[in-house]
Amino acid sequence: MESNATFTPVKDLTYNQAVAELDSILRTMQSDSCDIDRLTAYTRRASELLAECRRRLTATDEELKAILADLEK
Length: 73
Fold this sequence. Notes:
elongated, 73 residues
């Protein structure tokens, strides 16, 4: 992840893209070359990505439960 990266809006990412970006942020933050001046931006972005991934997982779980409940009727 570049220190001057412009982030794509979270809503425009696929789930897999969001997870990959989270992985990239984590690797960057754990590295010895992490730009301390960007640490807040990385943390904020990771928080946004996590919230969106959680929202999508919850929505998918609810949709699957509804589908399975319909099958049992």
